[in-house]
């Protein structure tokens, strides 16, 4: 201790002459820092109501609630986050996991209310003065807490696949599938989009957990065609996937296939269990495609006796006779069908209703009849020369390939059409050409320009890889035939527009831009229709029709109370819709049976 | 080590080992200091038994602040724990964020980008400065010297401004996230930080003149509350409490982490181990932190990634494992013991806050024979934060 210790404290007096540093009024304007985590904002145009913010919030401060004026639609649940500022801790994890980047924070931190209930608010809906604040916490790509890139699906290289009908897609390994499944945020937007409302987030969780048996049970709750849908589903679910906003959508289709690939067939049968005890009711189903067999599966599991009449020698309908083997191998399809027949479904092959057995017979012999005959008749362009024997329909050719009939592949050919069927036939014929002639000369002409092709982008990409010559905006005018009657090719004009002002089909051409595409064969792949001749004149007269298709109600029932119809022949356009239709019809038939039981 | 205080003139022990305190005799008095008391750091209480103005026995009562963090974390996903941990220590929350993040990263096998290590170190040193500034105000206040707290609170507020522009928040920064840190330094941060550091240095000059070269402070603090160096290991004493006893215990040096191996510094020590020495060690440690921040801002990379790619945090599972991550906070060794069982939730989290050992076992020993008027200063000199006692 020294004299300094006595005097030194008095230096504090120098502060007598300093201005106070305290801010007198706490309500003075003092903007928060540029990255301040202040009050929330939500961009209503970007928010899809996926609810990841609600999931991550460890305080339970966020509730997803319906909001007036925001309807649910494809890829948008219609729900919006309401935040309780009595619980929020401003950690901004909700901002970090937001799938669209719609949820952000302003740098505003002052909000005075006398009613505490008002501190529970829906950002973006309840207008606030900080809604347009430029500063505040934002999320940039680096901060995003869910991975954006899809695990690439291993598949055969073009050179390896073009020579045969071997399946192109290999399927995920367990490690790859887990990585891909890990990306899912379980928002469930996909469930609403899937026509069959499959429990997608749950079965993806089963992949993450490695619990494939649970996965199979979940698949079979809504879809007995997992082998098929795991390969060729149009996967609209992926269009509504929340992950697509920041990267690739989850490969939902491939994960479904992965589950079913992991479980042996006997185990699948064991997992789904035996059907219910027989009810004594009999159902006839015409057509063993996805719609008919789905209904058959559901009805058989309820104990009803189901007989399926199939005109072809094998079941599967368009999935077998329309989809090439490199996309859907027959043994995969057979596995799905084997599960269905194991439920006691009796499939009568080579039984063409209308020829081998009459509709009236079915009406009298069965308690209910379902029509699920698909679209097996190809449409014609009806251009000059289209009646030439070397002008073929794509569906007929595809059916011939499946049945194993010998097809003399032409050395050169032209396909008319830009949809998936056109790609299927072009790629199938290319394989045959390579096998028979050692080179591929297939030209595909489509009305649409490349940006508006009807085929899946992956089909177009793979077709190009397989040396298909794809020409867009070409309108077929005539099949060119020489004097000896030999088909030389197809004449096309440049398409200027396809639809008129009222969106009616009325193509306009530039006649000066004419091309002749060389081809010993021309294949029309411009659409299909149902062959309803089996109905007979009397029934055709009695039924109500809607623009060439049988009129059905929301349950798939026709105007005749004993007859239901489903699948491509009444609705379309794909396997999963057919499956969903099949379920609806099965529920409807079963409820009619239940009502009949109750009355008797 | 058995507790054997000198009780020659105080109550005899009963057969069961408890003290024979006959309150009815009028010789002893029970006094409660806390849980609401200006001389208590945070919400805890001391039950004093005094004889005249000397303390015969002191028992600590904690639990007023118990929020069950460790248990809460067992019911939250690994990412959801991240906003919770900072609340375990209010004045210096960043150590919780760092230790938790580092433990998760180790068990999940994540590599953190180098720049994130530098920013983490910067934040931890900024937090240390704030913690010491608060301490200095409290220590002086415990002796009735209010002005020091006014000065240090002002400069602490300037550092909170730096925290706000860097992390987006002033108190609970929630910035050191598993996988890295949330952002890079904002534009012009180093220059503004230098201005703040100079302001703090200037204030510390005043604090040294008014608090440390002060006859009253020395009379009250010198020779009081001595921690014998042989107690250090048996009582788990770390940080400035240990360094003031002449033992250079500093995790930054002893088990270097983050970028401390690349920084040039020596652990600050004292030798007298009393309240005054501990205060002085903290003041000099604060100056060291200022120097470390300057070194960091010069040496750190100017650009680069601050976050590593994480798996989907909504269902992030971490393989079975256990780890203990430690760091040197302003009170001593801070540690997180994390056990994972392969699920999406921590199986067990144990937080080792230095206040636990300092303010319960050690304090109960030091308070015996102390004067009542020194009790507050003694407790403050151990620099304890009750929330980290009651995780």
Q: Helices, strands, pairings?
A:
The complex is a heterodimer of chains A (600) and B (391).
Chain A lengths: L2 H5 L32 E3 L9 H5 L5 E5 L12 E6 L8 H5 L5 E3 L14 E2 L36 H4 L12 H9 L6 H5 L6 H10 L2 H11 L3 H7 L19 H11 L2 H8 L9 E5 L3 H12 L3 E5 L8 H4 L8 H13 L3 E3 L10 H7 L2 E4 L5 E2 L12 E3 H10 L9 E4 L3 H18 L4 E4 L11 H9 L3 E3 L2 E8 L5 E13 L5 E14 L2 E4 L3 E2 L6 H7 L2 E2 L2 E2 L12 E3 L9 H25 L1
Chain B lengths: L28 E5 L11 E7 L2 E8 L7 H5 L4 H8 L8 H15 L5 H29 L3 H22 L8 E2 L2 E2 L7 H24 L2 H7 L9 H4 L5 H4 L7 H4 L20 H25 L21 E9 L2 E9 L5 E7 L1 H13 L5 H10 L10
Antiparallel strand pairs in B: 1-2, 2-3, 4-5, 6-7, 7-8
Helix pairs in contact in B: 2-3, 4-5, 4-11, 4-13, 5-6, 6-11
Structure description:
The complex is a heterodimer of chains A (600) and B (391). By secondary structure, chain A is of the alpha/beta class. Chain A has 4 domains: 30-145, Alpha-Beta Plaits, CATH 3.30.70; 158-271, Alpha-helical ferredoxin (Fumarate Reductase Iron-sulfur Protein, Chain B, domain 2); 274-376 and 557-599, 3-Layer(bba) Sandwich (FAD/NAD(P)-binding domain), CATH 3.50.50.60; 377-528, FAD/NAD(P)-binding domain (3-Layer(bba) Sandwich), CATH 3.50.50.60. Helices cover 31% and strands 17% of the residues of chain A. Chain A is built from 20 helices and 22 strands. In chain A, strands 8-7-6-9-22 form a 5-stranded parallel beta sheet, sandwiched between helices. A 5-stranded parallel beta sheet of chain A has the order 11-18-12-13-14. In chain A, strand 16 (487-499) and strand 17 form a beta hairpin. In chain A, helix 12 packs parallel to helix 20 (575-599). Chain A is globular. The termini of chain A are far apart. With 391 residues, chain B is α+β, with helices and mostly antiparallel strands. Chain B has one domain: Cytochrome-c3 Hydrogenase, chain B. Helices cover 43% and strands 13% of the residues of chain B. Chain B has 13 helices and 8 strands. Chain B has helices at residues 69-73, 78-85, 94-108, 114-142, 146-167, 189-212, 215-221, 231-234, 240-243, 251-254, 275-299, 354-366, 372-381; strands spanning 29-33, 45-51, 54-61, 176-177, 180-181, 321-329, 332-340, 346-352. In chain B, strands 1-2-3 form a 3-stranded antiparallel beta sheet. A 3-stranded antiparallel beta sheet of chain B has the order 6-7-8. In chain B, helix 5 packs antiparallel against helix 6 (189-212). Chain B is globular and about 70 Å long. The model of chain B has no long low-confidence stretch (mean pLDDT 91). Chains A and B meet through helix 1 and helix 2 of A and helix 2, helix 5, helix 6 and helix 7 of B.
């Amino acid at each position: 201790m020294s004299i300094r210790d006595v005097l030194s404290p008095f230096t504090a007096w120098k502060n007598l002459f300093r201005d106070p540093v305290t801010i007198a009024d706490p309500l003075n304007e003092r903007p928060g820092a540029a990255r301040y985590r202040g009050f929330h904002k939500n961009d209503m145009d970007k928010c899809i109501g996926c609810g990841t913010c609600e999931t991550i919030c460890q305080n339970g401060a966020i509730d997803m609630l319906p909001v007036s004026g925001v309807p649910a639609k494809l890829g948008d649940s219609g729900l919006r986050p309401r935040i309780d500022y009595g619980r929020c801790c401003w950690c901004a994890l909700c901002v970090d996991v937001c799938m669209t980047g719609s949820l952000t924070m302003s740098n505003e931190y002052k909000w005075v209310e006398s009613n505490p209930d008002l501190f529970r608010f829906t950002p973006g809906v309840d207008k606030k003065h900080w809604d347009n604040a430029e500063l505040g916490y934002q999320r940039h790509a680096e901060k995003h807490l869910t991975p954006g890139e899809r695990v690439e699906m291993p598949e055969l290289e073009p050179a390896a696949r073009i020579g045969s009908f071997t399946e192109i897609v290999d399927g995920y390994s367990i490690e790859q599938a887990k990585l891909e499944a890990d990306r899912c945020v379980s928002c469930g937007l996909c469930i609403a989009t899937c026509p069959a409302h499959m429990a997608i987030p749950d079965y993806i969780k089963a992949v993450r957990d490695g619990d494939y048996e649970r996965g199979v049970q979940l698949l079979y709750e809504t879809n007995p065609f997992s082998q098929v849908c795991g390969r060729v589903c149009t996967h609209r679910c992926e269009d509504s996937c929340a992950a697509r906003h920041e990267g690739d959508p989850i490969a939902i289709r491939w994960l479904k296939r992965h589950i079913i690939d992991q479980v042996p067939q006997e185990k699948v049968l064991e997992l789904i269990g035996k059907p219910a005890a027989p009810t004594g009711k009999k159902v006839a189903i015409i057509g063993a495609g996805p719609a008919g067999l789905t209904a058959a599966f559901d009805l058989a599991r309820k104990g009803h006796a189901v007989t399926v009449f199939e005109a072809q020698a094998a079941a599967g309908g368009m999935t077998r006779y329309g989809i090439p083997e490199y996309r859907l191998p027959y043994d995969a399809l057979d596995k799905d069908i084997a599960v269905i027949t194991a439920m006691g479904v009796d499939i009568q092959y080579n039984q063409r209703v209308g020829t081998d057995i009459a509709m009236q017979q079915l009406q009298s012999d069965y308690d209910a009849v379902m029509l699920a005959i698909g679209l097996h008749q190809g449409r014609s362009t009806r251009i000059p020369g289209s009646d030439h024997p070397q002008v073929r329909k794509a569906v007929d050719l595809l059916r011939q390939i499946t049945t194993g009939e010998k097809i003399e592949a032409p050395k050169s050919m032209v396909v008319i059409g830009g949809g998936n069927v056109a790609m299927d036939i072009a790629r199938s014929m290319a394989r045959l050409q390579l096998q028979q002639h050692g080179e591929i000369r297939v030209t595909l002409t489509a009305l649409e320009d490349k940006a508006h092709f009807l085929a899946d982008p992956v089909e177009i990409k793979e077709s190009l890889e397989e040396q298909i010559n794809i020409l867009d905006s070409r309108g077929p005018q005539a099949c060119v035939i020489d004097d000896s009657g030999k088909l030389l090719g197809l004449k096309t004009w440049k398409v200027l527009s396809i639809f008129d002002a009222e969106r009616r089909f009325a193509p306009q051409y530039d006649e000066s831009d004419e091309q002749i595409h060389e081809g010993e064969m021309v294949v029309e792949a411009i659409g299909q229709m149902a062959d309803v001749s089996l109905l007979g004149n009397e029934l055709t007269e009695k039924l109500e029709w809607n623009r060439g298709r049988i009129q059905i109600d929301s349950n798939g029932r026709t105007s005749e109370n004993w007859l239901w119809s489903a699948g491509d022949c009444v609705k379309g356009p794909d396997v999963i819709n057919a499956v969903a239709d099949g379920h609806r019809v099965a529920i409807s038939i079963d409820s009619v049976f239940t009502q009949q039981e109750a009355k008797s | 080590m058995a507790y054997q205080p000198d009780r020659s003139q105080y109550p005899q022990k009963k057969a069961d080992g408890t003290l024979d305190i006959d309150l009815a005799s009028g010789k002893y008095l029970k006094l409660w200091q806390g849980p609401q008391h200006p001389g208590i750091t945070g919400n805890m209480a001391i039950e004093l038994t005094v004889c005249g103005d000397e303390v015969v026995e002191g028992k600590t009562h904690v639990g007023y602040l118990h929020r069950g963090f460790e248990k809460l974390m067992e019911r939250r996903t690994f990412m959801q724990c991240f906003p919770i941990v900072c609340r375990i220590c209010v004045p210096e929350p960043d150590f919780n964020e760092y230790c938790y993040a580092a433990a998760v990263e180790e068990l999940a096998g994540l590599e953190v980008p180098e720049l994130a290590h530098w920013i983490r170190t910067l934040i931890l040193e900024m937090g240390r400065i704030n913690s010491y500034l608060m301490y200095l105000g409290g220590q002086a206040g415990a002796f009735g010297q209010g002005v020091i707290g006014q000065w240090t609170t002002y400069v602490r507020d300037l550092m909170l401004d730096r925290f706000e522009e860097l992390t987006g928040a002033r108190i609970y920064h929630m910035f050191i996230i598993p996988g890295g840190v949330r952002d890079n330094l904002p534009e012009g941060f180093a220059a503004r930080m230098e201005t703040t550091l100079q302001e703090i240095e200037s204030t510390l000059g005043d604090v040294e003149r008014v608090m440390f070269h002060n006859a009253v402070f020395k009379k009250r603090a010198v020779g009081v509350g001595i921690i014998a160096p042989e107690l250090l290991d048996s009582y788990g004493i770390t940080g400035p409490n240990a360094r003031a006893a002449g033992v250079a215990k500093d995790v930054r040096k002893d088990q270097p982490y983050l970028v401390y191996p690349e920084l040039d510094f020596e652990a600050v020590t004292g030798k007298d181990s009393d309240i005054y020495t501990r205060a002085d060690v903290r003041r000099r440690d604060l100056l060291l932190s200022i120097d470390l921040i300057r070194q960091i801002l010069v040496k750190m990379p100017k650009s680069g990634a601050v976050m590593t790619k994480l798996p989907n945090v909504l269902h992030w599972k971490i393989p079975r494992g256990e780890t203990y991550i430690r760091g040197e906070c302003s009170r001593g060794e801070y540690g997180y013991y994390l056990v994972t069982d392969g699920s999406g939730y921590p199986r067990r989290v144990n937080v080792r806050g230095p206040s636990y050992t300092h303010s319960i076992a050690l304090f109960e020993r030091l308070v015996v024979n102390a004067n009542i008027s020194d009790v507050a200063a003694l407790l403050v000199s151990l620099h304890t934060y009750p929330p980290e006692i009651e995780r």
